[in-house]
């Protein structure tokens, strides 16, 4: 069982999970296309992508609800392909929690222990211990319908962890919670995951959730793995145009690559100006049409900016968002560019129609991809 | 605000008035007349008393007919449940094209008259019927089995005739169960049988109870099937009432046994209702 406590800093290491070339076909369509993920023991990995990207299919394959068309699922070095769900040692927290409505909270948590043949006394004490872990020790006799959404989710988590699974799967677990409660539960789940050291897969379409909770994020699009990296890398160094636009927001500017090597590139923008970028991804040579992605917070409005990296534009709108201010600026080729700046200067908000100059806050922040 | 609400309510009541009128004229009134009739001490209606009820309850033969009718309902209901549950479960698990076919097969009996369906059973169960012919040609039996005009025959025929009443509520109940619950159960280590026993079956209880209630009520009052398959040797309450009223012209006694039958059925229905309410109480999440 989960034996770690806050006083025990050496949390047990979870088991590794290797998804080796998983492909899933439904008739003619490919839901998951040759996805390989090597997940370390105790790691929390988020599967992030829009609906229909194959993340839920992957989850169902790991759980054993679905047999993959190709590839292998390997848990702690052992292939589990062909094993039914009840012999896979995974725990799932479903989006709707799927608590058994005709059983009490304690009975729900003890269900897995009962199925594994634990005696009544063990069932009771373990269920109580798991409920204490999720801070619901006093609600064991209630029925699920008598609990709030957050409490139901804690019960679902306790039920999944009670059988000490090798892998914990979380299927959009926070989607049904309101915003304030969601953050509390995210912290809570992360705390329990750290404590138990269990290898965890979080399926989500919410990028903030993925970036804030996961040790590494796997971004999926149309069944393909786009990138598998730590959150900061996903955000700062996206591997593809999809990742760059799906995670965070990005201004897309057309241009021509004029110079590129491993350390970086230079792009002549259609909107005017020559901009320094990260090293281009893929097979791009000088002269290629490219798309440059600039995050709104990587730009600043600077009347005094000079040099080749600057862009001329006209303010379309200014939005004061409390701590930041966002300006939408129409640049030379007609593209609307968003610029987000910290609101340190009270006079910063610019009136529509004001001609301005834009410059990157630092060189080489922009990403560059083959033109879409 | 209150005035608007009141308006809405009165409007609703007026809409229900035609049905309510029909209900009073064609159901409540005959029932009251029936009740009054049952207290007549003799067929001529010269004086009133509890004579008819005393006659019925003191008569072993009459009580036997009531008992065998109620028991017939139990047997038919159990058989229908046993055969119908797998069909409903299959419907739940089947792909959508197969769902349509299963539903059609379940509803098909309702599209033909009970008389036709029952005569089909006469053909199947008869001495020269399909069952006996098949068994004989396979060399399994020398003399035809007696299937028609037996208790077993009546139970089988009634179970088939009433099957939709069982299967439809079961399909509804099973359809309401969150499919994630079975997945959750199996991930927690339960095999198919345990999942069925601990999750699916308890959560389908409202459907089981509704189905049993409908089947039971229909089975014990199924005049046509009971009479045609049961033949002359077997007597159940509907036929007993019919004989007393039509053949013997003993209207007060017919009315009294009708009331007794009605009360007996109401008791059974109330038990089912209580069970139903209990099961709903804990299945609604």
Shape of chain A: elongated
Query: For the record, what is the CATH homologous superfamily label of the largest domain in chain A?
Result: P-loop containing nucleotide triphosphate hydrolases
Q: Please give the domain count of chain B.
A: 1
CATH architecture of the largest domain in chain A: 3-Layer(aba) Sandwich
Report strand % of chain A: 25-35%
GO biological process, one term (chain B): transmembrane transport
Keywords (chain B): Cell membrane, Membrane, Transmembrane, Transmembrane helix, Transport
Subcellular location (chain B): Cell membrane
InterPro entries (chain B): MetI-like, MetI-like_sf
Give a written overview of the molecule:
Chain A: One of its GO terms (molecular function) is ATP binding. Chain A: Keywords: ATP-binding, Nucleotide-binding, Transport. Chain A: Pfam families: ABC_tran, TOBE_2. The complex is a heterodimer of chains A (372) and B (285). Chain A has 372 residues and is an alpha+beta fold. Chain A is 23% helix and 34% strand. Chain A contains eight helices and 20 strands. Chain A has helices at 55-63, 105-115, 120-133, 149-162, 179-196, 207-213, 231-236, 241-246; strands spanning 17-26, 29-39, 44-48, 70-75, 78-79, 90-93, 167-171, 199-204, 216-221, 224-229, 251-261, 264-269, 274-277, 289-294, 299-301, 311-321, 324-331, 336-342, 355-360, 367-370. The longest helix of chain A is centred in the middle third of the chain and has 18 residues, at 179-196. Mean pLDDT of chain A is 89; it is low at 1-11. Chain B is mainly α. Chain B has one domain: MetI-like (MetI-like fold), CATH 1.10.3720. In chain B, α3 (60-93) packs across α10, α7 (151-176) runs antiparallel to α11 and α10 runs antiparallel to α13 (251-283). The longest helix of chain B is centred in the first third of the chain and has 37 residues, at 2-38. Chain B is globular and about 75 Å long. The mean pLDDT of chain B is 88. The chains are: A alpha+beta (372), B mainly alpha (285). The interface between A and B is medium-sized, with 28 and 21 residues.
């Amino acid at each position: 069982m989960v034996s770690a406590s806050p006083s025990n800093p050496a949390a047990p290491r979870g088991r590794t999970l290797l998804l080796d070339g998983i492909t899933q076909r439904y008739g003619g369509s490919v839901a998951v296309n040759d996805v390989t993920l090597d997940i370390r023991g105790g790691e929390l990995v988020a599967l992030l992508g829009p609906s229909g990207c194959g993340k839920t299919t992957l989850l169902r394959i790991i759980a054993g609800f679905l047999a993959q068309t190709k590839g292998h699922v390997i848990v702690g070095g052992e292939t589990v392909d062909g094993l039914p769900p009840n012999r896979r040692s995974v725990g799932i927290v479903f989006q709707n929690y799927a608590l058994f409505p005709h059983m009490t909270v304690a009975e729900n948590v003890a269900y897995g222990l009962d199925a594994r043949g634990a005696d009544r006394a063990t069932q009771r004490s373990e269920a109580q211990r798991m409920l204490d872990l999720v801070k619901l020790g006093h609600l064991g006799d209630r029925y699920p319908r008598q609990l709030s959404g957050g409490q139901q989710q804690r019960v679902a988590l306790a039920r999944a962890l009670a059988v000490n699974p090798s892998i914990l799967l979380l299927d959009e677990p926070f989607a049904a919670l309101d915003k304030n409660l969601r953050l509390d539960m995210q912290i809570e789940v992360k705390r329990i995951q750290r404590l138990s050291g269990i290898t965890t897969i979080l399926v989500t379409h919410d990028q903030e959730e993925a970036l804030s909770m996961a040790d590494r994020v796997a971004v999926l699009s149309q069944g393909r793995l786009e990138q598998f990296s730590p959150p900061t890398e996903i955000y700062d160094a996206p591997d593809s145009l999809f990742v760059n636009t799906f995670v965070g927001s990005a201004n897309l500017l057309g241009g021509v690559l004029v110079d590129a090597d491993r350390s970086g590139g230079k792009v002549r923008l259609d909107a005017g100006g020559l901009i320094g970028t990260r090293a281009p991804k893929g097979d791009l040579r000088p002269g290629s049409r490219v798309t440059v992605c600039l995050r709104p917070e990587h730009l600043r409005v600077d009347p005094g900016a000079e040099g080749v990296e600057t862009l001329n534009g006209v303010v379309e709108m200014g939005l004061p968002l409390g701590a930041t201010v966002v300006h939408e600026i129409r640049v030379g080729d007609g593209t609307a560019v968003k610029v987000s700046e910290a609101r340190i200067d009270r006079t910063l908000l610019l009136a529509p129609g004001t001609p301005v100059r834009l410059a990157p806050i630092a060189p080489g922040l922009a990403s560059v991809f083959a033109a879409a | 605000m209150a005035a608007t609400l009141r308006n809405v309510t009165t409007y609703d009541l007026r809409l229900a008035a035609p049905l309510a009128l029909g209900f009073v004229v064609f159901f409540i009134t005959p029932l009251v007349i029936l009740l009054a009739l049952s207290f007549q001490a003799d067929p001529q209606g010269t004086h009133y008393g509890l004579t008819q009820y005393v006659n019925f309850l003191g008569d072993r033969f009459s009580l036997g007919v009531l008992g065998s009718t109620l028991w017939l309902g139990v047997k038919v209901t159990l058989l229908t449940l046993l055969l119908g549950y797998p069909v409903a479960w299959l419907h739940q698990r089947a792909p959508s094209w197969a769902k349509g076919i299963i539903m059609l097969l379940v509803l098909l009996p309702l599209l033909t008259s009970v008389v036709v369906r029952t005569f089909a059973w006469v053909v199947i169960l008869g001495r020269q019927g399909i069952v006996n012919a098949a068994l004989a040609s396979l060399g399994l039996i020398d003399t035809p089995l007696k299937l028609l005009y037996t208790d077993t025959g009546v139970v089988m025929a009634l179970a088939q005739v009433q099957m939709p009443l069982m299967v439809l509520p079961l399909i509804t109940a099973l359809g309401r169960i969150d499919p994630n619950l079975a997945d959750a159960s199996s991930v927690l280590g339960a095999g198919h049988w345990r999942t069925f026993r601990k999750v699916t079956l308890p959560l389908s209880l409202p459907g089981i109870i509704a189905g049993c209630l409908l089947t039971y009520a229909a089975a014990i009052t199924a005049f046509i099937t009971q009479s045609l398959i049961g033949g002359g040797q077997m007597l159940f309450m509907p036929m007993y009432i019919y004989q007393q009223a039509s053949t013997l012209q003993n209207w007060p006694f017919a009315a009294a046994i009708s009331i007794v039958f009605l009360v007996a059925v109401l008791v059974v229905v109330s038990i089912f209702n209580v069970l139903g309410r209990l099961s709903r109480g804990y299945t609604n999440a």
